[in-house]
Design a protein that fits this description.
With 312 residues, this protein is α/β, with parallel strands linked by helices. It contains 14 helices and ten strands. The protein has helices at 20-25, 27-40, 44-50, 53-56, 59-78, 93-96, 106-113, 119-138, 152-162, 186-198, 219-230, 253-265, 270-279, 293-301; strands at residues 4-8, 99-102, 142-148, 169-176, 179-185, 203-206, 241-242, 249-250, 284-288, 306-310. The strands form three sheets. It has a four-stranded parallel sheet with strand order 2-1-9-10, with helices on both faces. It has a four-stranded antiparallel sheet with strand order 4-5-3-6. Strands 7-8 form a two-stranded antiparallel sheet. Strand 7 and strand 8 form a beta hairpin. Helix 2 (27-40) crosses helix 8 (119-138), helix 5 packs antiparallel against helix 8 and helix 9 crosses helix 10. The longest helix has 20 residues, at 59-78.
Length: 312
């Protein structure tokens, strides 16, 4: 049997309509949305399915939405039965997975899947994370962009050349070869677009996020997140999580408490995490949640890797 890992998407994967299919097929998944709505104080499923998009895209709403959507997709997969109508826990990827990883926000979904945090605690934690990051982003104009078709050294030079005086502009997400996200103050993000294209970038895509995540612009959010994590019950993970900050595998709750605040202001080493899992013999992956971005990054790293996308 192949060694399996579960992957969870991050912010930017959200879209109006997410969750509609899952809740129509799986009553237990619908209950998760209802449970989260009671915690959050608003109808999360209605926001996910009906929008409006400008509200769903706000960091304070998109982060809980993506966490719960991934949990719902995980629930449906966990309860999946075979063609004979019989459940086989050994064959089920949720039960047989040997590792998890998540892109930025997705790391919280991964911790939930690995049994390190309970569902309601996870909802509260990502809601506070989203609110703290939204407030930090609102304090100064900033954003993120994906640069497609350039190597890391070229993107680093792009940041150095486009960075405006006194501003931040840096590599934020190392997704896969030829797909690197940069993050920084708005004027620098704007200046980088023409430069990136002149350097040979295939595309320069502004990301639907509130601000410069994974830079020091998010520093004001760190203390709030640390406070929320300090009171959040957290257990050792049942299976290893490959962390964004260092691309290494971790299982100890004490490590997660240190890594999660660091992640907000540190580059996401997603490509390194996938390479580490592949090197450790993981052969099959399940992307659980909104979008298909993670499967695409995996294929750019290892063309023959098997990745199933599980969402709506």
């Amino acid at each position: 049997m192949s060694k399996i890992a579960l992957l969870f998407p991050g912010q930017g994967a959200q879209s109006v309509g997410m969750g509609a299919g899952i809740v129509s097929r799986c009553e237990a998944a619908k209950h998760l949305f209802e449970q989260a709505s009671r915690v959050l104080g608003y109808n999360l499923l209605d926001l996910c399915v009906q929008g409006p998009a400008d509200k769903l895209n706000l960091t304070s709403f998109s982060q809980p939405a993506l966490f719960v959507h991934s949990a719902a997709a995980l629930m449906e997969l966990r309860l999946k039965v075979n063609e004979d109508g019989l459940s086989n826990p050994i064959a089920n990827p949720v039960h047989s997975a040997v590792a998890v990883a998540g892109l930025s926000l997705g790391e919280y979904s991964a911790l939930y899947a690995a049994g390190a945090i309970a569902f309601e605690d996870g909802v509260k934690l990502v809601a506070e994370r989203g609110a703290a990051m939204q407030d930090a982003a609102s304090s100064q104009p900033s954003g993120m962009a994906s640069v497609l078709g350039l190597e890391l050294e070229q993107v680093q030079k792009l940041c150095d050349d486009a960075r405006q005086v006194g501003e931040i502009l840096q590599v934020a997400n190392l997704l896969c070869p030829g797909n690197i996200a940069i993050s920084g103050h708005q004027k620098s993000i704007e200046a980088a677009e023409a430069m990136a294209l002149s350097m040979g970038a295939m595309k320069y895509i502004r990301l639907p996020v509130a601000g410069a995540f994974h830079t020091n612009i998010m520093t004001p959010a760190v203390s709030r997140l640390k406070a929320a994590i300090s009171v959040c019950p957290m257990s050792n993970a049942k299976i290893p999580l490959y962390a964004n900050v260092d691309a290494a595998s971790h299982t100890e709750a004490s490590e997660f408490r240190n890594l999660l605040p660091q992640q907000v202001v540190s580059p996401v080493r997603w490509e390194d995490s996938l390479r580490a899992m592949l090197a450790d013999g993981i052969e099959e992956f399940y992307e659980i949640g909104a979008g298909r971005v993670l499967a695409g990054t995996l294929k750019r790293i290892h063309r023959k890797a098997v990745c199933h996308s599980i969402g709506d």
